Amino acid sequence: MPQITTKRFRPTNEQLLKLYKKRDDHQSMTQKDLGIWFANECKLSSPLTQSSIGTMLKRRQEVEQRPAIQRHSKRPHTVDAPTSEVEELLYARVMACQKDNIAINHQFLVDQAKDLCKKKNITPAHNFSHGWIYGFMGRYGLKVSHAHGESGSAPRLEDESMQEKVKEIQDQLSEYPIERVYNFDETALFYSAAPRTTIVQVGTKAEGEKLDKSRITVGVVANGDGSHRIDPIFIGKHKSPRCFAGKASGFRYFSNTKGWMTSEIFNQVVKIIDRAAGAKHQGKKCVLLLDNASSHNRLPNLENLVIIKLPPNTTSKLQPLDAGIIAAYKKRYRSRQYKDAAKKFQQHKRNNVFKVDILTAMKWTNAILKFEITNKTIANCFKHTTLFHHHFQEPTAITAEHNLEEESDDEEEVVETIDGSLETIYGPDFIRSQDIEYCFDNVIEEEAEIENEKDDEEEVEFVDNTMPLAECNSFTASITVIAVPIVGRSQFD
């Protein structure tokens, strides 16, 4: 005998309100007749039983006492009573942020909800998971409002001449173990730019503000299995920014009038990499992969490095740092900026909450690149470029030029920062550039790349948090996220 299955029906708040209105308008209708009418109204295959209608009518007071935004929601209401109070207060905070045009993200909702539970001495019935985030946004009519930026077009590697060049590089790299292959690349960080993604009320638009174009060039270097990370390089426009207070920054900081990489600076940088690689591998020859930027053309005599340059316009496909490592770094940087802005918001600061000085940006960058980007992420990005035929084993323990804390293998949202405190990362890890589009932290973590196609002079990436998903494929199937651009903000030119 075949098993009979039934589909459970859960009326939405909006449907229940229609039922109550029908009851008021036609008080002579029996509950059985109401069940037939309600089934037709909700397009059900069979009428509801009298007991089901009776249960819904008993809930009338509860439903009508809900906030207006929930009463007219098309989603079932399933929140426990104590947490409902927290959600109402959290909704008020979201609206306050929208009023003051302060961008927020999913982690802001979690942090604020936990803070409210603590202040109200309420023990929540759930862990404020991803499901709760989307449920809360649905119940209160919230959505992700996102401004899409530009993205570089993918280079073509199908040409026979290009395949020959790639094969030549593969043959050269095959002579070196993966831990002795390094990659260096520069990227521009707009360290004070406010994110272009926030959470707003459905039916409204996020208002854009003037873009802060304060920029610093960051030079990133790592070897193929992530076991050796050399301190990042920073290039600014000013020799001694005010935030340095006349003292040394403690980082490798260079300056010129434009804040870009120059041949003179790169000569110093490549010597630093040469000495560090030689010390790490006891004088054995190592490879340094570079793009074909003009600042990389004039090289000094190197003792430990063999330079291999990538073909023009192939860096987004063949350069490991462009395959996801820099994107992962910028994802985490923007996450820190969100959290810093949330602290300022709680301190009743409303102006320029995303503003960051250059020294703070350097500290965050150093911590992220040395402690938060995992060895596995780096190894996967090297492997993804298809330049390496080596067998990728488990990455070895991380080392660096300063004393490093033990890196956590946990790729969840909580990591340990330099000062030993627990900081929340607002998004999952990036493994490959294809994984940049994801759904945990809004929609897309937009990393707009503006490159000189002729000689790759400089890679400029605009960072914002949206959203950064490599691990949400199964989850996104059940989620619908609406993304609209923030109005009033010009693109970077």
Automatic annotation (TrEMBL):
PROSITE patterns: HTH_CENPB (PS51253). GO terms for cellular component: nucleus. The keyword DNA-binding applies. Residues 61-81 are annotated as: Disordered. It comes from the Eukaryota. InterPro entries: CenT-Element_Derived, DDE_SF_endonuclease_dom, Homeodomain-like_sf, HTH_CenpB_DNA-bd_dom. Keywords: DNA-binding. The keyword Transcription regulation does not apply. Residues 74-146 form the HTH CENPB-type domain. Pfam families: DDE_1, HTH_Tnp_Tc5. One of its GO terms (molecular function) is DNA binding. PANTHER family: PROTEIN PDC2, TRANSPOSON. This is HTH CENPB-type domain-containing protein. The lineage of its organism: Eukaryota, Fungi, Fungi incertae sedis, Mucoromycota, Mucoromycotina. The gene is ABSGL_06679.1 scaffold 8661.
